Each structure stands twice: as C-alpha cells, then as structure tokens.
C-alpha cells in the first residue's frame, strides 16, 4: 500500500522539463515547451514556453518568442511576448516588438521595435486585443529607431471611470535604461 | 513464482562462484525458482512465453545490461514483474534501479519494492535505459512534426534516454547528468559532442543539447547505426516514442529516481 502511494506522489510531482539547444544545433519549426528553455544555438520559426527562457550570447533566434520570463543576451529577430519580466543584457539585439509586464534593459543592448509595457499589456495580448484602450491601467510605449539612433517615448494613460487613487494603485514603476 | 533467466555468457568459469553464491542466497531467502538459460538457439521471448502459460508472474534477468534488454523486449506491455541480478558487465541499468551486484541483489529481490515505469520504444522494440546513435548527421523531427532539429556534423552522439545511467556521466551540462525519470511519461533526447582526450583528460568538444519529448522520428541519408540497451541494429528510419507505465520492475533503495 505504501509503495503505491510513493509511486503516485512521484508521478504527481513529476520533473521540471529542461530544454537546451546548444550552440551547434539548429531548430526549425514551432517549438512548444512546458519547462525552462535555454537557447545557445539557432532557432527559426516560433518559440513558446510556459516557464523561463534564456537566450545565450551566441544564440540567433529568427522567431516569435513567448515565455513567462526571459533573459536575452543574444540576437532575436521577431516579436517577444513575455508575461512577467524581460531582461536584455548588454550583448542583446532585438529586432521586433516587445510586449512585457516588466522590463530591464542593460547599457549596450540594442532594441529596434515597439515596446509595450504594463501589467495589463500581456493579458490584453492573450485576449487577442492589441488595442491601447483600457480602463484604469497604464501603458508605456517606446519606439526605437536604429538608423537615426533616436528614442521616442510616450506614456499613454487612459483612465476611465475610477478615481485617481485607483490609478495610483495600478501605477507601475519602470526602471528602464536606454543607451545607444 | 520466480523464473530466472541466465544469459549465455554465464557459462564461463569465472562466473561460477558468483552464481553459486546467488543460488545459495536465493534458497536461504525462499525465493528460488525455475531457471532458464539463453543460448544461440534459445530466445528470451520463447522461454518467457512458455513460463507465462504456466503462471509465472516474475522474471529475473541474471546477467548484464544486454540480458535485461533481451528480456524487456520480450515482456514490455505484459503483466509481468521484472527483477535483476547483475552479473558481468556493464550493469548500468541495475545500478540506476538501485540493485547491487551479485549476491546482494537477492536481498533486494526478496524485499520486492516495485515501481511501474515507462519504456521507450524504437521501431516497435522496447528499451528501458537508452537508445544511442554513435555518430552521423541525422535530422530529428519532434512535436508531432511541428519542429525539426538538425545536428551539426558527424562528431556528435545522440542519446534518447528513458532512464539515464552512469555511462553518461561526464557530459558538460548539469542537466545531462541529472538522471532521467522513467516515471514522467517523457524521453530525453541528448545531442552530445564527441569527447576528446587532451593532456590525458577527456573533455567534450562542445556543449550538449537536451530536448524533452514524447515522440520523435530520426532520419538520415544513410542507414542509421543504433544501440538500444546494448542491442546493436541498423535501420533507415527510427520512430521513437515512450510507453507510459509499461513495466513493473523491482527496485532497490538506492535507485536514482522516485526516491
């Protein structure tokens, strides 16, 4: 009886799957994972994980990326959709739009695309609504143009109905540093 | 009722003493049973089929990894419990299951702690530990055909692992060294660079890839040389999947999974 219980427990807990694509390997197509993913090689297509993603310094990704959180040190050509936190390291190069709840960009990182931030941004994307109208939320949008090295930032706040206290409660502090 | 299958190499004189100790211990523990011997003219499948008709519910492999492989291939999917008494070499599968060498394995058998584990299957043949493809440029198709992985060159080895054993230690990535769990309904595909000897130390030429999946196809322009649990074969195309809860196996306390 006790042996059976032990086996059940182990199966229920399971193991956290771990995927590693090393530097010399090329992955093409739509890759979906339920665990943490580390990319050091080449990925072409789309990449989706329910957990964390790390893109190594030598990695080259030509794919739309979706993850819970991500640390990017390599090159990503495609849109990045992160539900929690995205960190771009000094060697990171992103050519595509970024949608994330929380963003850290280190000095030296290159971003060419539109950045949409805020706690509601990712949920809006999940619902398939890419509009910018939302009640009681903050939306932060940054456009970076690589050729002109210009940075345009605009914060749109569309508050409907609720009081200013509600707005303050929902306000998100963003520590983002852009250096070209 | 226990049915013991001795591999053919155990007729060598150097194993006579170990076998005598094992048989004495089995008698002391009251778990002795019928013995079948493999030979070039006697297959494990035939022996097991006959014993199943007589009501045998536990088959014990006496020998090395290849012995276990022959028996697993025969009893995969059947309502039979597998036990092991490791004799000879290599015995990595038994080590992973926490079963000690020789006479000491009899005590593990008598305690009869069982686990229901997954088996891998390659082109219809079951494997317990791993499938190895020593070299060659191959293409791996996973995720029901949704993605494709191309290996770099001939200088890498591919291992599809259900229960990872000590033979794989030494791979650079920590994940590759973590024993695979044969109770998770998944296989691990490892793409490992060849090892090189530099100044007497064996090192990998690059880093390893690890992909976790339920099913994969491996193809190549040339026939693929593969080894499943020590059994060597050549095929044009490999269809590999995991069969969950496929085998009931007797394990020891020192097993590397489900502790």
From TrEMBL, chain B:
Signal peptide: none annotated. InterPro entries: ATP-NAD_kinase_N (IPR017438), Diacylglycerol_kinase_cat_dom (IPR001206), NAD/diacylglycerol_kinase_sf (IPR016064). Gene3D superfamilies: 2.60.200.40, Probable inorganic polyphosphate/atp-NAD kinase, domain 1. Pfam families: DAGK_cat (PF00781). GO terms for molecular function: kinase activity. Residues 13-122 form the DAGKc domain. Transmembrane segments: none annotated. It comes from the Bacteria. This is DAGKc domain-containing protein. It comes from Candidatus Uhrbacteria bacterium CG_4_10_14_0_8_um_filter_58_22. The lineage of its organism: Bacteria, Candidatus Uhriibacteriota.
């Amino acid at each position: 009886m006790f042996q059976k219980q032990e086996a059940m427990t182990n199966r229920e807990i399971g193991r956290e799957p771990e995927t590693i694509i090393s530097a010399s390997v090329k992955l093409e197509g739509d890759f979906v994972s339920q665990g943490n993913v580390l990319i050091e090689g080449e990925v072409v297509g789309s990449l989706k994980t329910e957990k964390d993603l790390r893109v190594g310094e030598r990695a080259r990704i030509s794919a739309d990326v979706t993850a819970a959180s991500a640390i990017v040190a390599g090159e990503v050509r495609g849109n990045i959709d992160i539900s929690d936190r995205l960190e771009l390291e000094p060697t990171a190069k992103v050519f595509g739009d970024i949608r994330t709840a929380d963003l850290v960009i280190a000095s030296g990182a290159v971003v060419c695309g539109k950045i949409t931030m805020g706690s509601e941004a990712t949920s809006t994307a999940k619902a398939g609504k890419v509009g910018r109208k939302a009640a009681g939320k903050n939306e932060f949008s940054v456009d970076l143009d690589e050729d002109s090295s210009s940075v345009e930032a605009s914060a749109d706040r569309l508050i409907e109905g609720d009081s200013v206290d509600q707005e303050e409660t929902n306000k998100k502090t963003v520590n983002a540093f852009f250096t070209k | 009722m226990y049915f013991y299958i001795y591999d053919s190499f155990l007729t060598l004189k150097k194993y006579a003493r170990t076998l005598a100790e094992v048989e004495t211990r089995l008698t002391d523990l009251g778990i002795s049973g019928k013995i079948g011997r493999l030979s070039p003219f006697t297959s494990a499948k035939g022996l097991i089929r006959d014993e199943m008709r007589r009501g045998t519910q536990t088959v014990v492999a006496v020998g090395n990894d290849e012995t276990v492989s022959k028996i697993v291939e025969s009893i995969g999917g059947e309502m039979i419990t597998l036990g092991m008494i490791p004799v000879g070499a290599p015995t990595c599968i038994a080590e992973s299951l926490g079963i000690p060498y020789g006479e000491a394995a009899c005590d593990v058998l008598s305690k009869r702690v069982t686990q229901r584990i997954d088996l891998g299957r390659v082109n219809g043949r079951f494997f317990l530990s791993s499938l190895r493809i020593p070299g060659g440029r191959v293409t791996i198709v996973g995720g029901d055909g949704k993605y494709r992985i191309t290996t770099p060159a001939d200088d890498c080895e591919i291992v599809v692992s259900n229960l990872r054993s000590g033979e794989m230690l030494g791979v650079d990535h920590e994940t590759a060294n973590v024993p695979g769990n044969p109770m998770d309904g998944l296989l691990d595909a490892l793409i490992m660079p060849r090892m090189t000897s530099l100044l007497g130390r064996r090192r990998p030429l690059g880093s390893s890839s690890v992909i976790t999946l339920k099913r994969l196809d491996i193809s190549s322009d040339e026939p693929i040389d593969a080894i499943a649990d020590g059994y060597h074969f050549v095929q044009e195309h490999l269809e590999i999947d995991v069969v969950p809860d496929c085998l009931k196996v007797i394990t020891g306390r020192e097993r590397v999974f489900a502790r």
